[in-house]
């Protein structure tokens, strides 16, 4: 049996608060609290239902409950932290036919938002 990579040993050894939140932050390099604020600030809830985000009741895009456990992002990318961040930051670069707009997010905002979304299992 192969030993666990160091990064996973670190994640497992340092879990103390909500494990899902900690793992989401470590795997994305984002901050879930800044992610929630960015989701609100950029109006993501006008198109998506997003658990834990006040007023996020939009019906134009898919509901984001459980996105952290899904196999695909936007039906075209394997659900990995880098792919989710890529999609969030520039969806048209992934799928030119998507109706999801480019919101002008920074790399850090995409990391933070992905971190928050990965808490939604």
Key terms:
about 120 residues; mainly alpha; Cytochrome Bc1 Complex, Chain D, domain 2; two-stranded antiparallel sheet; 2 strands; about 45% helix; globular; disordered N terminus
Instruction: Give the C-level CATH assignment.
Output: Mainly Alpha
What is the string of helix and strand elements? HHHEEHHH
Fold-level CATH name: Cytochrome Bc1 Complex, Chain D, domain 2
Number of domains: 1
Considering DSSP H and I runs of 4 or more, what fraction of the residues is helical? 40-55%
Biggest sheet descriptor: 2 strands, antiparallel
Question: Number of DSSP helices?
Answer: 6
Low-confidence stretches: 1-16
Please tell me the CATH architecture by its name. Answer: Orthogonal Bundle
The number of strands is: 2
The multimeric state of the shown protein is single chain
Mean pLDDT: 89
Specify the overall morphology: globular
CATH superfamily: Cytochrome c-like domain
Which structural category fits the helices and strands?
mainly alpha
């Amino acid at each position: 049996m192969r030993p666990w990579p160091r990064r996973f040993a670190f994640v497992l050894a340092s879990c103390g608060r909500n494990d899902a939140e900690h793992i989401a932050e470590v795997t994305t390099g984002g901050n879930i609290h800044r992610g929630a604020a960015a989701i609100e600030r950029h109006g993501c809830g006008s198109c998506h239902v997003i658990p834990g985000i006040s007023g996020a009741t939009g019906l134009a895009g898919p509901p984001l409950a459980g996105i952290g456990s899904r196999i695909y992002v936007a039906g075209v990318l394997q659900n990995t932290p880098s792919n989710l961040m890529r999609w969030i930051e520039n969806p048209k670069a992934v799928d030119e036919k998507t109706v999801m707009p480019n919101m002008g997010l920074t790399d850090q905002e995409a990391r933070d938002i992905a971190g928050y979304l990965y808490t939604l299992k």
